[in-house]
Amino acid sequence: MTYMSTATPTTELAGKKIIVSGGGIGGASTALALALRGADVTLYERHEEFKEVGAGLQIGPHGVKILEKWGLGDKAIQAGYLPDDMQFRDAVTAENILTMKFDETFRERYGAPYLVVHRSDLLNLLVEAGREAGADLVNGVSVVGGEENAAGDGVDVTIEHRADGSVETVSADLLVACDGIHSVFRPKIVQDEPVPSAYVAYRGTSDLPNDPDMQGLNSVVGYIGPRCHFIQYPLRQGELLNQVAVFQSPRYLDALIGGTDAPEDWGNNEEFKNAFGHTNDFLQGRLGHMWLDQWWQMADREPLTDWVVSDHILVMGDAAHPPLQYIASGAVMAMEDGETLALYASEAASEGDVDWGSVVREVSDERAPRCGRIQTTSRFWGEMWHVDGVARHVRNEAFRQAERGGWFHYADWLWNYDPARRDYVNDPALGELPEGLKDWEYNIHKIQRQRDAGVSAEDITV
Ligand SMILES: Cc1cc2nc3c(=O)[nH]c(=O)nc-3n(C[C@H](O)[C@H](O)[C@H](O)COP(=O)(O)OP(=O)(O)OC[C@H]3O[C@@H](n4cnc5c(N)ncnc54)[C@H](O)[C@@H]3O)c2cc1C
């Protein structure tokens, strides 16, 4: 399979002024996708530089297809690594329970390979390509507000220059808020809070070629175990090893069950030291490679069914759908958002004057159910990784069966996606979990429900 190294820009959105708030992977993708259709795009990022915290990102074929469309397929693959497969292992015994091969059959089915890439490398590619396509990407400016203009045909956006605190208003046809999980604009749709999962992630990168225990690693490997998991994969053509260690924080869980405030540093180094004692020796030996100076308390939000702030303001990326990371699709969803908006807007422009109110609603109707399903499935998938006791043995057998009997049908809905088909507009019920999982309840909800019903801390079932 070969990939285009340049996209073919078009001009449907020429003369349309679009402001993007936030220069993470979501905002940079959106700016690029719109600029490739000829829009006059300005992106404001509050930080002085474009940067990502953390290291590796898994980009499934649903994301690689989009990079390809944007002319970045080759560059992203050169910057990253194409693993042969993904291997799930039981974290207690290290037994391999499922290998998902990313072979030619996989690539043909999903139209692209499975890529792993350093976050900063991907962001740099998107920023560079956005600029080449004509977008103006500006650092050190926060978007602090936005209102429909008096004529009702656009938006007045308030920006603050961080260097001197000066504030000004700029006008646009559309404002796209890709400003992350603590978005300025999401509260205009819903007043909700992030939902901590009680799990915390430690990350780390290290030299791969000179690591004697990791020679020949060409897979994404996930050790899944009771209340924890551990992921490894190569980056930068095998020069760098990416590792992520995730575990349930006992102190956060106790606070949640007891109805008290969790300590701010839940998941700290003390908890990390004790979290993997029940896992295999190899895994425990790898923990010394993790960064200890920061850790990530994992949280998502409840799925949002409507992303439209007003006819000319839309939220996207983590601002609309922050997920748990278990099906590795948060950044890919944000890329899909950008491509969907650019596609629907350019189609509308080809048919005449763009009615932005209709465009943003159509984007929301397509994207909200899809991303809701990814968020909910991520919660379910994470719980399945972390089970203990008899459930762990049943899970392991289900994984072995999936390898024997074929696993594609579990993944088709996720990886075989094309926004041009408008699958979710046509059938919003696709956003729900499959019938067999309808009565599954997320553990955090289950604990909260029992607490709300007055069940005492000792009697709460986790
Ligand atoms: C441990 C972990 C592993 C993950 N692994 C994967 C994976 O393998 N694959 C995958 O697809 N996803 C993964 N994700 C999810 C993915 O990282 C995120 O979903 C994605 O990066 C979100 O991008 P975003 O641009 O929407 O938001 P953000 O990355 O949060 O970017 C928002 C940007 O907006 C800026 N901003 C905020 N407010 C303002 C403002 N008022 N004005 C201007 N700028 C503003 C911020 O500075 C920031 O740059 C993982 C997440 C975690 C935590």
UniProtKB/TrEMBL annotation:
Q: Where is the FAD-binding domain?
A: 18-342
- What is one Pfam family matched by this protein? FAD_binding_3
Q: Which domain of life is it from?
A: Bacteria
Q: Please verify whether the record's keywords include Metal-binding.
A: no
Please list the cofactors this protein needs: FAD
What are the protein's UniProt keywords? FAD, Flavoprotein, Monooxygenase, Oxidoreductase
Give the GO molecular function terms. Answer: FAD binding; monooxygenase activity
Q: What is this protein called?
A: FAD-binding domain-containing protein
Please tell me the species this chain comes from. Corynebacterium maris DSM 45190
